[in-house]
Amino acid sequence: MVCCFRFPGTRWWYWSYSLVALLTLPHAAPAQAPPPGTDYLAPLKTKDLSRLWRADRLVFYGTPGADVFPEPLGFIGANYQRFYLHYTSVRPAPGQPYVYQVSGKTRVKTNVCAFTGTITVVKARLYKAPNAEHPQLREGELTCRVELAEDRRQPGSGTLSGTLTTYFYLDAKGQPQYNSLEPMDGFSNNQCVATWTSYATRQRKPCHWGDFKIPESGDLDFSVSDFEVAAKYVPNGWQTYMAALEG
What we know:
Helix content is 3%, strand content 43%. By secondary structure, it is mainly β. A hairpin with a 6-residue loop joins strand 8 and strand 9.
């Protein structure tokens, strides 16, 4: 099914694509080791990868039409308070291969902060085996360093620093595309594990986000299919999300 909701007071929509849930567990399934691969960083030096993180539309390979590009799901702090992150711009940094300049906004509760920063690709792997369902295509993954700085003039602002994992496939022209080859239960992409640090107090909080799922989310997410929030955390900003998910 496809579910959607809108950021209150904005035009930003989030779409969740999933199949019928087959199983729910107290914790999300543990991450599996990545498939064997080879280094693929050098071939990406001249490629524009910005559409892996921001685009107008997301096409699920082999299906007609397209969905709105997903807005990340995220949390901040030990209580899994909902964290919103929206990119307004992602573009290659002039003269700096593998570096992308980004800007956008974050939101926690009603506090909105503008940010600028970079996504830097530090590692790329191309899997040795082709995709089982689409053997003409090769898949891979990027490991990126994320450094974001919220506007110091805004209350409750700080910095975000972490590691982002992005999954891609190579199209017929060899251009990396957002990996949507198998949008099955537990589908995810752009998984970021980061730390937020306050400018004012230097307090540090875990802050993780991702498309369709959130990495290392503990008991926040109890499902292996859709991202479903445990009841005890729903009051921490997840009310509209669960209302939309439940129809």
